[in-house]
Amino acid sequence: MSAHLVLDVTTPATLAFELGVSTQYAVTEALTISIDGWFVEPKAVLDHHGTRLHVLEASVGRLILDYSASIEGRAAAGPADEADLLRYLRPSRYCESDSLGPTAHAEFAGLSGFDLLSAVSSWVGSRLSYVPGSSLPTDGAVRTLLAREGVCRDYAHLVVAMLRALDVPARLVSVYAPGLQPMDFHAVAEAYLDGQWYVVDATTLAPRSTLVRIATGRDASDTAFLNVHHGYAELLEMEVTAVADVLPDDDVRDLVTIG
After folding, report:
1. Is residue 187's pLDDT more than 90?
2. Which helix (H) or strand (E) holds 104?
């Protein structure tokens, strides 16, 4: 996995990057950040579920970030505690499960367990068109459903909102996704079923078993690859790569974990 970012920092800013792989993996990695050719060291901050933030007080200038990682083996997500399960049942900024409750109950009455996960994934996938650039960073699940189009985070937000409306704990995960075309950071949903978190990707754009977790949270507000605070920075370039030794087939009827 790798990421290359170029930013124009026009006023001093606090930058929080979420692009390093989760602590759940055994990883060999390298991260370099420079501003106008001078290398700078970010502060490492650990967030929920192994999410790592690299926080930098950036001065004005051209910032270049390069990250690379290689992982060996797989590792399952950590266990969910009671606070997690309650947190991921609540409506959130981009997953308005309270507003979508009547729709969810009308569409999926009588379904539970694996049948429910499969039905929600298929329903979202069949009602949305994947259109790069079609959504705004402020769009949530309700607006996505009305627009009937979006990108991966919009698909994931709608899946999460519908599942929460049906009392299934669900959350958003940003991932590296080998096989994704065009290559980018990817977002998927995770749903809690029978003591395990299972990945739900209504886009079906990459094999779920090869996904590598980056950040985990309520929605995109917790998992964005970059947040800018106390200043201004413009993203000029971004290149993401993700390669797996083998790209397996992905049967949508299977339950798959990210690990």
Report:
1. yes
2. helix 101-107
How many CA atoms lie within 13 Å of 186's alpha carbon, on the beta-carbon side? 30
Question: DSSP character for 160?
Answer: H
User: Cis (ω within 30 of 0) for the bond into 178?
Assistant: no
Residue showing tokens 């996960």: 117
User: pTM for this one?
Assistant: 0.95
How many separate domains does the chain show? 2
Instruction: Name which of 88, 9, 98 is nearest 48 in CA terms.
Output: 88
Beta bridge partners, 216, equal 173
**Cα(209)–Cα(173) distance, integer angstroms:** 14
Q: For residue 245, what pLDDT is reported? A: 84
Which pairing describes strands 149-150 and 129-130: parallel, antiparallel, or unpaired? parallel
202 and 94 in a common domain? yes
Report how far apart, in Å, the C-alpha atoms of 162 and of each of 24, 81, 112, 142 are: 28, 22, 13, 10
Give the domain extent around 139: 82-222
Q: Distance between CA atoms of 97 and 32, rounded to whole angstroms?
A: 39
pLDDT of residue 247: 86
Vertex 246: Cα angle to 241 and 248 (nearest 5): 105
